[in-house]
Design brief:
Length: 260
């Protein structure tokens, strides 16, 4: 698989899943914009890739801010002239029962996952449509795009919402050969999940091991975490698959936790 000559923007790429996707894209020949709220970490990730001879750029962006998204995407266009691939991946998690969420927490969750997906999609589409060369938009959904879990109301709501956005972009983008798909990982051991283990243990009054075994991996076929590499390989496949045969789909990568 080759992404040679392609320009990819990966949001939330300073850590976890996004970081690995950026690395795999760069290893496949793409020029990669490592976009994140955390500029020092994004710059470090870009420097690591550049030290290996890859083309990478660290960009600070708050995906919930229209101004910040427009400025960040403009930076990519100024540097490399186009955007072929967008991975809308930036995400956060807050776990608590519905009645304990503050309105600000709810809005923050929806903003990072849905406003962020909309704002980055809009900016990428404008370039893809202008050039007429097509493109790939990949949303980082979750098994929670299909399933609910206790304590995750805004996350589950937002991740379900991404399916709607992807399917609409798939229909609108088809005539310009822009594909939109959703990757739906199971639990992957990243900082986002590490943080949840003690929080869930406390909320449910169980041990960390019980959270992992009886909640996170309970319904997998093998009791294994999904890895950042598993997800990045699917992201590379979708970036490289250049026909509308695969568009408007969701790809569950979860060790069988959820089977569609
Ligand atoms: P992570 O915490 O390792 O990385 C998330 C990154 O997003 C961080 O670098 C953070 O700085 C960045 N970010 C947060 N808010 C941002 C904002 N407003 N603007 C720009 N960047 C922002 O988490 P991860 O586990 O790699 O998660 C990446 C994506 O994968 C998220 O959308 C998450 O919901 C999804 N996901 C994760 C898992 C999992 O088990 N880890 C499972 C399914 C889906």
């Amino acid at each position: 698989m080759s992404l040679k000559g392609k320009v990819a923007v990966v949001t939330g790429a300073a850590s976890g899943i996004g970081k690995r996707i950026a690395e795999v894209y760069a290893e496949s020949g793409a020029k990669v914009a490592i976009v994140d709220l955390n500029l020092p970490a994004a710059s470090t990730a870009a420097r690591e890739l550049k030290a290996k001879g890859k083309a990478a750029l660290g960009i600070q962006m708050d995906v919930t801010s229209e101004e910040s998204v427009e400025a960040g995407m403009a930076q990519v266009l100024k540097k490399w002239g186009k955007i072929d691939i967008l991975v809308s991946n930036a995400g956060i998690q807050i776990v608590k029962p519905v009645q304990e969420f503050t309105f600000d927490e709810w809005r923050r969750m929806i903003a990072v996952h849905l406003d962020g997906a909309f704002l980055t999609t809009r900016a990428a589409l404008r370039d893809m449509y202008r050039r007429g060369d097509g493109g790939a938009i990949i949303y980082m959904g979750s098994v929670h795009s299909h399933e609910a879990s206790k304590l995750k109301a805004p996350y589950v709501t937002a991740k379900h919402g991404l399916l709607g956005l992807a399917r609409t972009v798939a229909k609108e983008g088809a005539e310009k050969n822009v594909r939109a798909n959703v990757i739906c990982p199971g639990f992957v051991k990243t900082p986002l999940v590490e943080k949840q283990i003690p929080e869930q243990a406390k909320k449910f009054g169980i041990t960390r091991q019980e959270v992992i075994k009886n909640i996170m991996l309970k319904n997998t076929v093998d009791g294994e975490f999904t890895t950042v590499d598993d997800v990045a390989r699917v992201a590379r496949f979708l970036a490289d698959f250049e026909t509308n045969a695969l568009t408007g789909q969701s790809f569950v990568v979860s060790h069988g936790w959820f089977m569609q």
